[in-house]
User: Fold this.
Amino acid sequence: MAAGLPQDNLSRYFAERHLQQALVEAGNGEFDECLEMAARAVEQVRERRHDVPPGEKLKVLKPDE
Assistant:
């Protein structure tokens, strides 16, 4: 679902972060949190709460910036 959104879409960005965290939780054996994070990812894509107005972009800074 997230891959269906444009690459620079904020909802996609947050959904992908939730999916990454879900994988971490699953790797730690925390399956309840894994399912919760996956559900958050789906919610992000469906509700698209983080859309930005046309012409604006998300700039994600790296830790050293």
Remarks:
- The chain is about 55% helix and 0% strand.
- Residues 18 and 65 are 23 Å apart (CA to CA).
